[in-house]
Amino acid sequence: MDHRPPHPSHRQVGEPRLPLLAVPFALIAAVTVVDVLAPPDVHLGPFLVAAPALTASFAGPWMTGFVGAVAVAAQVSVAVVRTTATDLNHTFQIIALVLISIFVTLFAHLREVHEKQLTQLRSVAEAAQEVVLRPLRDRMGPLRLASVYLAAEAEAQIGGDLYAATRTPHGTRLIVGDVRGKGLEAVGDAALVLGAFRAAAHQEADLPTLVAYLEAAVAADPDGADEPADDPGEAFTTAAVLDIPDREMTLRLISCGHPPPLLLRGGRAIPLEVDHPAPPLGLTRYVDTGFAPQSFSFEPGDMVLLYTDGVIEARDAQGTFYPLPERAADRPGDGPDALLRHLCADLLAHSPGGSLGDDAAMVAIERVTGA
């Protein structure tokens, strides 16, 4: 089953928060009353600038300008009651208040424009990612699967986490990866990797050839230039690529700079560390290396957990990383779907305010039969 917890709905840009609006108006009223009642040599008018400045932090330019106008009107009223509106001291206070109100209203406008841009970018990136990350099937041959994608709370910080699975004549192939960078560019790079995987996973005879095909797709210059990019670290993708035969109680793994999958067996979480990991996709042309698959036992009842670094790099309030192996070892005993529900709830509880700093993806695979 494919889980996609919806991203929390965002407050409309510039929408006033009604309970907070009471604060600047209460401040204006309090300063006005106290200023009128204060001794002649005491002037509290400068405190009125706090009202529009405070409003600009949470409301749009129209509300900020309105609060500034109310503050100016209050200052004029104080001047009329205490002396006259043309009194030199009050005149300078009124002019300063008008200028500051104009300034903070402009600030509120710029903040609103920025929020609209971020909201639009996040919306487009989320829509693109939903198209790129197709739901995984619950059952593929002798395997049961479940996947989950958790979006970071930070605006426009959607990442390039990716996963996919496809059937071959002899088994199932899977990939989980993480593209360097954030936003739409990362989603586009993830789409490139997934497109190459889906095109070649059921055609290439062996895993090294498949990974070499993915490397060629990532390393290719999108502008069609013959020379590679000047910056070798400009674009790369960490990935774990697996081949799980139907009739062999093994799995074959090539790790391209990705965190090791966890084999869950007998109450233990065993990292599947390969002896010869490859560099991330997009960087292997700079390193003399090959793609050597390594085999691991994978028997009925075993479960393998694939994940991206957004899971293991999540921190609690004290800065402690999420202990995925320990939490995964305590998995419920009723399948991959239950495991991911357990881990998602636990991961969000571990993160301050239930908010992740980076996108996170997990895929759980259980072998339920021998063929």
Tell me what portion of residues adopts beta-strand conformation: 15-25%
Low-confidence parts: 5-14, 224-230
Extended strand count: 12
Which secondary-structure class do the elements indicate? alpha+beta
Shape: elongated
Helix content: 40-55%
Would you tell me the overall average pLDDT? 82
Along the chain, the helix and strand elements come as: EHHHHEEEEHHEEEEEEHHHE
Tell me the span between the first and last alpha carbons.
21 Å
Secondary structure blueprint with pairings:
Layout: E1 2-3, H1 18-37, H2 50-56, H3 61-82, H4 88-132, E2 139-140, E3 143-150, E4 159-167, E5 171-182, H5 183-200, H6 207-219, E6 237-245, E7 250-256, E8 262-265, E9 268-271, E10 294-297, E11 303-307, H7 309-312, H8 324-329, H9 336-350, E12 360-367
Parallel strand pairs: 1-3
Antiparallel strand pairs: 2-3, 3-12, 4-5, 5-6, 6-7, 7-10, 8-9, 8-11, 11-12
Helix pairs in contact: 1-2, 1-3, 2-3, 3-4, 4-5, 5-6
What does this structure look like?
With 371 residues, the chain is α+β, with helices and mostly antiparallel strands. It has 9 helices and 12 strands. The chain has helices spanning 18-37, 50-56, 61-82, 88-132, 183-200, 207-219, 309-312, 324-329, 336-350, and strands spanning 2-3, 139-140, 143-150, 159-167, 171-182, 237-245, 250-256, 262-265, 268-271, 294-297, 303-307, 360-367. The strands form 2 sheets. Strands 1, 2, 3, 8, 9, 11 and 12 form a 7-stranded mixed β-sheet that branches. A 5-stranded antiparallel β-sheet has the order 4-5-6-7-10, covered by helices on one side. A hairpin with a 3-residue loop joins strand 4 and strand 5 (171-182). Helix 4 packs parallel to helix 5 (183-200) and helix 5 (183-200) packs antiparallel against helix 6. The chain is elongated and about 95 Å long. The two termini are 21 Å apart. The relative contact order is 0.11. Mean pLDDT is 82; it is low at 5-14 and 224-230.
